[in-house]
Amino acid sequence: MTTGTPVTVLEPRLAEVGGFEVGRVLPQRARRMVGPWCFVDRMGPAHLGHGAGLDVGPHPHIGLQTVTWLIEGRLLHTDSLGTEQVIEPGQLNLMTAGRGVSHAEQSSGVADPGVLYGVQLWVAQPSLTRWDEPAFEHHDDLEVVEFDRARATVIIGTFAGAASPARRDTDHVAVEIELDTGLVELPLIDGFEHAVLCLGEPVVVAGHIVEHGQLAVIDPGDSAAGSLVIESPVSSRVMLIGGAPFDEAVLMWWNYVARTRAEIVEAHRDWSSGGEQRFGMVPTSLERIDVPGPPWA
Ligand code: MN
Known about the structure:
It is built from 2 helices and 26 strands. The protein has helices at residues 261-272, 276-279; strands at residues 7-10, 13-17, 20-26, 37-47, 55-61, 64-72, 75-79, 84-87, 92-96, 101-106, 115-124, 135-139, 144-147, 150-156, 158-159, 162-163, 172-179, 182-187, 193-198, 203-205, 208-210, 215-218, 227-232, 236-243, 251-253, 256-258. β13 (144-147) and β14 form a beta hairpin. It is globular.
C-alpha cells in the first residue's frame, strides 16, 4: 500500500482533562471508531509543576477498556478494585469496566516537575463481556519487534509475529513504533480497520503527510496489499491501532459506552446517587467528578 490507499487524516480537537490539555482524535463526526477503538486522547507533551498537572478525580466507566500508555513522565492509577499502580513509559495500564468501575489518575505526588506525555484510548467491549465484572492489568514486559529503521512495542494483540499478554475481548491491536529516518514497511492485518497516530515529528503514511497529533485512518480497501509504508524524514514516533470492524452500534455519553439511552441514564443515576454499590470506592484524596445527566434524560 502506498499512494492510492484510502487514507483520511483527522485533526485533533483540543479538550481539557483534569487541568491538562489533550488532543482528541476519536470519536469525531467524520469517524466514530476504528475497529473497537472508540476514543483516542493524546495527553501533552506538557511541562508539569507550578500548578500544572493531570489530576482526574474518581469517575465512572461502563462497557469499555481504558488503555493508558506513557511516552514521558509518570501517572498514578487508582481504582475501585483497590488497585494503586504507577505507570511509566513503555508500560500498559489496561482497565476493563464491564458493568461498572471507577478510577482516578494523577500526576501530582508521583511525577517530579518535568514533562508528561502519553495517550489514553478506549476499546468498546462487545455484548459478550460488557456486563462482566471489572478488572485491571498492568504489563511491563511487552515484546519489541525490530524492523530495519523501526522498533515496534506490541501493546495489545499480535503484530509481526509477537504477541502481547494483555486481555482482549475483541480482535484488535495497538503498537507503538519508534521510527528512524527513512522508510519502513509495516504489516497490516487482513480485514482490520487501521489508524496511525503521529506522536512525534511529521511522517508520511501511505503518501499522506501526518503531523503531530493527527490520526491517519486507513480503510481496509484493497487489503490484499497487506502492508503500510511509513516514511519518516527525521526520527519520530507513531502509534498504530487496528481491529476488525465493530459490528454493534455503540452509544457513547460522558464516560459510558453503551447501546441504549436507558443504559446510560441508569448508569448515570447509579453514579450520581453516590455510586458505591455499582462503581465502588477509589482509594484517592482527589474529589470525585460529577456532571449533569444526559440532555435527553
Ligand atoms: Mn477514566
